[in-house]
Design a protein that fits this description.
Blueprint lengths: L10 H18 L5 H15 L2 H13 L4 H6 L11 H14 L10 H10 L2 H24 L13
């Protein structure tokens, strides 16, 4: 399988990706827990059907010490006992924020309020920005059919 556009060779694609990476870097430097960030990246990518990003972020999370048991449970987090209340609130916000087209009212107040119980305003800003940035990465990769499976942890620095 080969991507429709080679992002590494395309000058324009490179510019776009650098901007997305810059936004992601701001989130990385925000103080939002790296574990929470990886959980959200994986869940958003699962929902959006981005195999490349699921591959990348499960491998990055594993390299950072996340357990296989928790990673296997992300897609069914509501039934799983392995996540903290804060992680559950982040995953709920990630799902609602990713599926905004499915709900006429957007993110329900109850989901936002639960997230606000666990995260500061800056962390909420980072979390919502992360959901948006991951969705952008996911859509780019899905549209160009970026192959999944060969990612190596740390591959992009």
């Amino acid at each position: 399988m080969k991507a429709r556009i080679n992002v590494q060779e395309s000058k324009l694609a490179g510019k776009v990706v650098r901007q997305l990476v810059g936004a992601a870097q701001a989130v990385n430097e925000s103080g939002l827990s790296p574990v929470t960030q990886e959980l959200v990246k994986i869940r958003v990518s699962q929902i959006n059907g981005c195999g490349f990003c699921v591959d990348m972020h499960t491998k990055e999370a594993g390299a950072a010490g996340e357990t296989d048991a928790r990673m296997h449970m992300i897609a069914v987090w509501r039934e799983a006992t392995v996540f903290s209340d804060a992680e559950r609130a982040a995953l709920a916000l990630a799902e609602e924020g990713t599926r905004i087209a499915d709900a006429a009212g957007g993110v329900p107040d109850a989901v936002w309020e639960e997230a606000a119980r666990h995260f500061t305003e800056d962390e909420l800003t980072a979390l919502t920005s992360l959901i948006a940035v991951m969705s952008a990465f996911n859509r780019l990769n899905v549209i160009i059919q970026q192959p999944a499976g060969d990612y190596q942890p740390g591959q992009f620095g």
